[in-house]
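Reviewer 2 asked us to include a model.

Predict the structure of this chain.
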Amino acid sequence: EGDDKFDVKVKKGETITLPIGFTRPTPSPTATPTTFPTEKPTASPTAKSISGAIEPQTPSPTERPTEFPTAVPTRSPTETPTSSPTPSPTSPPATPTPSPQVCVSAYEDSNANGGRDDNENPIEHVQVEFKWKGGNKVTGTTDADGIVCHSVPAKEKVTITIKKKSPINGFTQTEGDDKFDVKVKKGETITLPIGFTRPTPSPTATPTTFPTEKPTASPTAKSISGAIEPQTPSPTERPTEFPTAVPTRSPTETPTSSPTPSPTSP
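Predicted model (structure tokens):
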């Protein structure tokens, strides 16, 4: 039963027992030579006929050993069934202790309250640097869930640095720091949330356009002594909401000449 070589797959915590059966070889039958006693030929009495003449004798057959020994059959050995060994209970394999890990979870803090709300989205492609003793340094990038993790030595200071590059260039960090130190126990995993808010765009002022009149240069008045007198700037006229009526001059009456009296003759 079974093979002398085979492959198996064992599930976690499973124990399987593979029976392999054997039978003893059947011994070749030992040929036992059959011996027959060789009888000494006895002289047959010479039969004489009544007349006294010797009659021919038929010799007794002498048994002769066979050329090949006759095999004495032996019983085939009865196979003794061997009981399958009862597998001894084995203790489940020890679960290996996972390596300690540090994770960073980046998200967009839309309301800038310094904590993550259910409706706030992760930020992908944020670069995070993990650095520890001996100059070991690894840089990872957050995935679609905004998370990046890395295995680190236990009970050793690990420096986490957030790279302020795209896609968070110009963002304001509202939770966590851009650089911090942590220590992780054996088999422990810690996750550090870091929140960012987008920069608020400055409002663009819409310019109000008014017609600008060209200023007229006022002549510089000089006093008698030649000193420059302070000038009062002329007010710049601004269009009124309603048109200003242009006054018309009152008509000047044209005087009528009095008639010159004609001289009368005496």
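Residues 253 and 259 are 18 Å apart (CA to CA). The mean pLDDT is 74. We have added this to the supplementary material.
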